Amino acid sequence: MHPFEYVRATSVDEAIAALAKYGERARPLAGGTDVLVMARAGRWELDALVDIKHIPETNVLELGSSEFRLGSAVACYRVYEDEQVAAKFPGLVDSASMIGGIQIQSRAGLGGNLCNASPSGDGIGTLIVHNTTCLIAGPNGTREVAAEDFCTGPGQSVIGDGEFLVEMKMPMPQKGFGAAYERFTPRNEMDIAVAGVASSVQLDGDIIVSARVALAAVGPTPILSSAGDLLAGKEATAENISTAAQAASADASPISDMRGTAEQRIHLVGVLTRRTLERAIERARENN
Predict the structure, then answer these.
(1) Taking CA atoms, which of 165, 173, 227, 252 is between 20 and 30 Å from 207?
(2) CATH class of residue range 5-51
(3) Which helix (H) or strand (E) holds 182?
(4) Do 223 and 215 touch, CB atoms closer than 8 A?
(5) Cα separation of 249 and 155, whole Å?
(6) Pairing state between β 48-51 and 5-8
(7) Closest CA to 69 of 172, 178, 200
(8) Cβ atoms 201, 116 nearer than 8 A
């Protein structure tokens, strides 16, 4: 790892200028739990790290009347230790409390987890099922991208040279909304998901008005499954959940590696989809 510049940005414009100056040889620094590891391992040749932690917009944690704003530099612990956020977004808490150990969670955030674009990222599926919109700033201004469109390949995203993720916005949960995330790992903590599933539902009585199911670690990017569409307008029954779980398994396109076979991952997707839908429905019924 050769010497590189450290830029402490205090505004969005300052960060854009620094990132644009160094182009593909610059990276934003938020939590730093991955970027420094990648730089030391030689995956990235860096000429500059641009610290975005001191920009007010990247630190926003705000529950509004219609949307929740979550800055890209907000650490995981701030999500689950905020009682109001935890009460409204227990699905986010599921993910934020699984990213690494407590030490990692004191630095790493859901924004960095998304920007890493790992197919197994624990926070990405949950952002997807919460209908998250990502605000990206760059030399050509700002643009918004849906969370399900953010990752374009393993470790690759829509972020271009000179751009960075400023914040994420998601609708405030309405009555009858619930979400959940669950993963399978060989160990309980500090491991990478062999498979993971996030689910959300909007209930009206016992009818599922809408649902979203997102899959992790079973494709080159996190996958927004067709399972959610199959549930729309149907009763929240075990039979319908089972049908959705089968559809989610069919949407998975995993590989076999030292951590699990493709067949095992496909099976796990079905199990985790059923579990997270049941948990999301339970939370939706509590949210009335």
Answers:
(1) 252
(2) alpha beta
(3) strand 177-184
(4) yes
(5) 23
(6) parallel
(7) 172
(8) no
In the three-class reduction of DSSP (H, G, I as helix; E, B as strand; rest coil), residue 156 is classed as: strand
Q: Which two tokens stand for residue 76?
A: 């995981």
Encoded tokens for 147: 């969370």
For residues 28 and 66, the answer to whether their CB atoms sit within 8 Å is no
State pLDDT tens for residues 120-144. Answer: 999 999 999 999 999 999 999 999 9
- Residue 143 main-chain phi, psi, to 5 deg: -145, 160
| Helix (H) or strand (E) run with residue 154 in it | none
pLDDT band at 1 (very low <50, low <70, confident <90, very high): low
H helices of the chain, where? 12-22, 35-40, 76-81, 83-88, 90-96, 102-105, 110-116, 124-129, 227-231, 238-251, 262-286
pTM over 0.85: yes
CATH superfamily of 177-286: CO dehydrogenase flavoprotein, C-terminal domain (3.30.390.50)
- Topology of domain 56-171 in CATH is 3.30.465
Joined tokens for residue 195 = 């498979």
Q: Token pair for residue 265?
A: 């991952």
pLDDT at 189: 61
